[in-house]
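Tip: read the tokens left to right.
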């Protein structure tokens, strides 16, 4: 079968032939139809410090996908051959304290599809059947292919009550923009998104931001004044991984504000902790998606009118995968979808 894999310890990704993966009794084999490129795939593509430390070579990458059930192990129940599925990319151990309590997103033994074990950029993917998530017929393939990052956005944005609240989102990458769409959908008041990339800020505006602010040329404080925000933001969603963005968030949060942090900073970063202490801020770290509450909520939001289609700005046949990676690299894209069919 075809795979997109890291086969050399250097920048790049290569299409190589590999044997079909083996199927265990509790596994499902998925015939991949569409995949999307994640920021993580870009780190692996560029072979940055994190990838050099984390990714065994060779490794088939990718974890954003939709496909159909091709085969199932003998023990699998509740799925059918031919059924359309996407899947949770975090494979958990099932025996740690959090797994046993049903808090599987907090499993300390999590393995990542396309990071620690073979990924979805392949004609066939094998995962534990419990990780497969059935896709209702009214959700198109392109949207089903981006449920993984939409789930990061949903897990973060739905961590705190947003109804009637003023929300600051730092970082208008695909996840930040989808978080803005969720905040709009569930009834936030002002949704201010910051970035330094005008292409992405215009996508944020299109997806529901009240104001999209290029912090390299416009002051966030003046935007707040314009919106009549006297006291500060009620909820902050950090989705850039850039320390200056987080520091700026701490400045403009109201007292008692709540902050959810998804963005991954490249290294340790200093902040003024007195802002956290004297403002009585609540800070929550976010990893992945809740299994599987986030997945149910994503489907429900899509079915109740949240339209993610503007997020998919580029589509390529998988033969042109390098164009896809270059498009993601350019910063002038939302999600890029590769077609394997
Ligand atoms: P992305 O890199 O596409 O988006 C980050 C955005 O931040 C970019 O558009 C960038 O221009 C912007 N930015 C740069 N400087 C800024 C500044 N000073 N102020 C505001 N914005 C600034 O990433 P993404 O795919 O949307 O993911 C968002 C973040 O979440 C990344 O850091 C990613 O690594 C992380 N992530 C975390 C998890 C998790 O489970 N915790 C999962 C997926 C992604
Ligand atoms: Zn566990």
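Filled-in amino acids:
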């Amino acid at each position: 079968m075809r795979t997109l894999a890291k086969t050399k310890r250097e920048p790049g990704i290569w299409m190589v032939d590999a044997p079909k993966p083996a199927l265990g009794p509790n596994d499902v084999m998925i015939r991949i139809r569409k995949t999307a490129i994640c920021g993580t795939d870009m780190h692996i593509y560029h072979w940055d410090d994190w990838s050099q430390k984390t990714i065994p070579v060779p490794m088939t990458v990718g974890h954003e996908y939709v496909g159909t059930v091709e085969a199932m192990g003998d023990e699998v129940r509740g799925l059918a051959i031919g059924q359309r599925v996407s899947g949770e990319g975090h494979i958990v151990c099932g025996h740690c304290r959090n797994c046993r309590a049903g808090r599987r997103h907090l499993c300390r033994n999590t393995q990542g599809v396309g990071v620690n074990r073979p990924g979805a950029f392949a004609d066939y993917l094998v995962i534990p059947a419990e990780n497969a998530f059935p896709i209702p017929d009214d959700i198109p393939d392109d949207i089903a292919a981006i449920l993984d990052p939409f789930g990061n956005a949903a897990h973060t944005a739905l961590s705190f009550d947003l109804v009637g609240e003023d929300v600051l989102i730092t970082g208008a990458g695909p996840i930040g923009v989808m978080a803005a769409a969720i905040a709009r959908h569930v009834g936030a008041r002002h949704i201010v998104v910051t970035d330094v990339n005008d292409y992405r800020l215009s996508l944020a505006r299109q997806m529901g931001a009240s104001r999209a602010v290029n912090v390299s040329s416009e002051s966030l404080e003046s935007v707040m004044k314009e919106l009549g925000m006297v006291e500060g933001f009620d909820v902050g969603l950090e989705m850039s991984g850039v320390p200056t963005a987080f520091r700026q968030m701490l400045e403009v949060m109201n007292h008692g504000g709540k902050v959810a942090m998804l963005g991954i900073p490249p290294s340790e970063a200093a902040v003024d902790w007195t802002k956290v202490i004297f403002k009585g801020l609540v800070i929550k770290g976010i990893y992945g998606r809740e299994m599987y509450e986030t997945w149910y909520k994503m489907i429900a939001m899509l079915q109740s009118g949240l339209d993610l289609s503007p997020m998919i700005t580029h589509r390529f046949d998988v033969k042109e995968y390098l164009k896809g990676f270059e498009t993601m690299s350019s910063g002038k894209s939302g999600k890029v979808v590769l077609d394997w069919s």
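The mean pLDDT is 98. The longest helix spans residues 174-186.
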